[in-house]
Amino acid sequence: MCLGIPMEILDINGYIARCGARGVEREVNLFLLQETPLKPGDHVIVHVGYALQKISPEEARSAWELFDQMLDAPGHA
Q1: What does the DSSP assignment read for the chain?
Q2: The whole model's pTM is what?
Q3: Which of 5, 32, 70, 77 has the highest count of CB atoms within 10 angstroms of its CB?
Q4: Domains present along the chain, CATH in parentheses
């Protein structure tokens, strides 16, 4: 199973974006979305350093809410 993390694009330089989520910033490769118009403020799903899909801010927020619920579940170490 793979886990994609929703992140917000902060800055774009060619095919590399600086993205942030929950206070963490990472460089993300946008090459797989080269046909998708992207700009700072957009949200993407990131897996192993690559943006896989553009998503809405609501989808990003919903994903983070689900991650929080999983972390708060009984039995989580």
Answers
A1: ----EEEEEEEEETTEEEEEETTEEEEEE-GGGTTS---TT-EEEEETTEEEEEE-HHHHHHHHHHHHHHHHSTT--
A2: 0.88
A3: 5
A4: 5-72 (2.30.30.140)
**How far is 52 from 60, CA to CA, in rounded Å?**
13
CB 49 within 8 A of CB 32: no
6: its two tokens:
């929703």
- The count of residues in the chain is 77
> Per-residue pLDDT tens for 25-43?
999 999 999 999 999 999 9
Query: Which of 69, 64, 36, 70 has its CA nearest to residue 50?
Result: 36
Residue 37, token pair as written in the block = 């118009």
Task: Enter the DSSP assignment of 1.
Answer: -
